[in-house]
Amino acid sequence: MKHKQTEDGNFLIKLEPGDRVINAINSIMEYLNIKAGLITGIGAVNNPTLGYFDINQKKYIEKTLTGNFEVLSLNGNIAQKEEKPFCHIHVILGDNEMKTFGGHLIEMEVTVTLELIVIPLKENLRRTPDETTSLWLWNL
Amino acid sequence: MKHKQTEDGNFLIKLEPGDRVINAINSIMEYLNIKAGLITGIGAVNNPTLGYFDINQKKYIEKTLTGNFEVLSLNGNIAQKEEKPFCHIHVILGDNEMKTFGGHLIEMEVTVTLELIVIPLKENLRRTPDETTSLWLWNL
Amino acid sequence: MKHKQTEDGNFLIKLEPGDRVINAINSIMEYLNIKAGLITGIGAVNNPTLGYFDINQKKYIEKTLTGNFEVLSLNGNIAQKEEKPFCHIHVILGDNEMKTFGGHLIEMEVTVTLELIVIPLKENLRRTPDETTSLWLWNL
Fold this sequence. Notes:
3 copies of one chain form a homotrimer. Chain A is mainly beta. Chain A has a single domain (2-139), classed as CATH 3.30.1330.80. Chain A has 1 helix and 9 strands; from the N terminus they run ββαβββββββ. In chain A, strands 1, 2, 3, 4, 5, 6, 7, 8 and 9 form a 9-stranded mixed sheet that branches. In chain A, a hairpin with a 5-residue loop joins β1 (2-5) and β2 (11-15). Chain A is flat. Chain B binds chain C through residues 36, 38, 40, 50, 52-55, 61, 63, 65, 73, 75-77, 88-92, 100-104, 119, 121-123, 125, 130, 132-133, 135, 137-138, 140, and chain C through 2-4, 6-8, 10, 12, 14, 17, 40-42, 44, 68, 70-75, 92, 94-100, 111-113, 115, 117, 119.
């Protein structure tokens, strides 16, 4: 993983083969002390584990896809959960027939590269537990 | 719906269960007097109505999907249409098998949460009618 | 193609029927002398050629889809490749049944409109050749 802050205060983050995406983003956000932000990116990964939130069961159904995929869309945000940066990311992936799959990102591993741009937001955005869903939601 | 302006002038908008997305975004943009902007978000919704523009018929084909979906990607922009804010949004949704669907967003209802970030643009961006397509397009 | 810089330094770019997307974006980025940036957009296109990077063969598998599609998501970045702006873009497209397809964008032609927003980044972001993959990757 490499990163660089631009002159106007945004961040370029390049994840490299073998990097685990959620783990790497949370680490670098903590290192950079970013309390809120918008994150977007494109690249290529393998064996992604995706989630779908089941409202009745109040938990994520997880599914791991096998193989190599293009990251067609990676969108999410960074907030604070119990004093640590927490990224909430949804992805859409593409296979070699241009078919698409997607979900809440649990984890995935970079194969070729993952080019991320983070736009920090000047705000102490926090997540707090929501009783109805059992999820940690934005506390505005 | 809750919203907060960050110190650097962007907006965090949290839509809550039962909120209708297009309706809520147009309302809050009017309330905040935002004349142009970029909007992005992730969350979960149900029973979305999506559109596909048929060039020959010069109108949107609409389709309503039944059930609960993750909002994997919500991308769009805000402009002025006849002196009122108008959001143009495309979405990609995911089901419990990580399959994806998408279209021009007509409307959908939030189930769990929808976390939106709006980056306002300092520009009086306007939409005006386009004769060829019968759509209201950006007037640059 | 029309473009306008907003007061806060971002760019609105409207591609018009017949415009070829990659070609148009590279041209306008060169004209505007943008060395790094984030690009996002929505619109409608036809006959897109998409790519999937085959790691073993170290080259893109290409596929051209026939027909008209909504551009549900267009995400990417602009960097310098051999002193010229180079855009790296991934797209997700939707058909008249709200089914989705996607890949690395090789090229596609605008039908109705393509509404792009470019957020420039103050950074001389460069791509240099990567031996392992034979791709030009971010050099941070």
